[in-house]
Amino acid sequence: MERLDQFMARANAAYYAAHDPYRDFTTSPEISQVFGEILGLWAAVVWAQIGRPDPVLLVEAGPGRGTLMADALRAIGRVAKDFQAALRLHLIETSPRLRAVQAERLPGATWHDRLDTLPDAPLVLLANEFLDALPIRQFVRRGGRWMERFVEAGRFVECTLQPPPPNPLPQGEGEDIIMELNEPALAIGRSLGARLSARPGAALFLDYGPERRSNGDSLQALRDGQPADPLAAPGCADLTAHVDFAALSDAAIGAGAVVHGPVPQGVFLTRLGLFQRTDRLARTQPLARASGLIEAARRLAEPNRMGRLFKALALGSPGSSTPPGFEG
Ligand code: SAH
User: Fold this and answer.
1) In which domain, by residue range, is 88 found?
2) Ligand 1, residues 6, 8, 10, 16: which to mutate, most atoms within 8 A of Cβ?
3) What pLDDT, in 10s, does the model give residues 275-307?
4) Total number of domains in the chain
5) Using a 6 Å cutoff on CB, does residue 317 contact ligand 1?
6) 130 CA to middle of ligand 1, Å?
7) Helix 33-49 crosses helix 287-301 at what angle (to 10 degrees)?
8) What confidence tens digit (pLDDT) does each residue in 187-210 have?
């Protein structure tokens, strides 16, 4: 019998070590190059806002194939040469397989297993669909008590909480409701909060999940591109859960950071000029590629596609300016 987060950590480590995850899912940077370009320019503006520290760490957590960062660096190299000269690239990645893919596209980067080993310096961190892959715990309310979900032989079993529920205690009324707790995401929020309160910097998370805390089981699995039973075959499917942006914000604020958003991804990208940049790029391309680029931008931004479920959340240092895309 294994606690759900231990099961999920083991399953995802095996999955990312053995599979090309992009056979099973696609992500925003793989959909349009403009996504990474915009995030690169976001980082350049934020670097100017925090006083142009040199050196500055440009960090990506969970870089996947390295596409987002390659697109970001190309855009930075074109319009922000001083940022390009000041930045030191650091990547947080546990999968040896994906590290090898990233090394080909991002020569000169330094890799880390976790945030804690990053050098002590001002930083700008980007993370797309990183937090959703981190392991969650689930609690279910039965007979007025919280039970925790464990996994045994491909099924959930419920155990009385022993020791008592961790902090923050899952809140909620009623029977049979499920609460989720992403402890690694909260630890990242606290660790970044502490860093940002000690040194200038910012972090941008794009991920999917509701704005406010909500109850329910959001654990999902994709296997061979199809929804699958998350417990059935650990290591054969990509397991994710919705990100609790409110809990992440609270953790970062508690450690001294300021928080901006969350803002729906469609609003964020549109404010940062997704459609203008796409149009400009499309004009230089043959017709089929041009319409592909425009369709890709719509997929990222339209509310009934990725524009609303996905959100952008920024963490900043106390007293820092509002970063681009979070005004209003
Ligand atoms: N950001 C990329 C990839 C998303 S998939 C994109 O948008 O395409 C999740 C990424 O996080 C993968 O690179 C995966 O190997 C990495 N990852 C998952 N769990 C991790 C962990 N606990 N620590 C560090 N990286 C992790």
Assistant:
1) 26-134+182-316
2) 16
3) 999 999 999 999 999 999 999 999 999 999 999
4) 1
5) no
6) 5
7) 60
8) 999 999 999 999 999 999 999 998
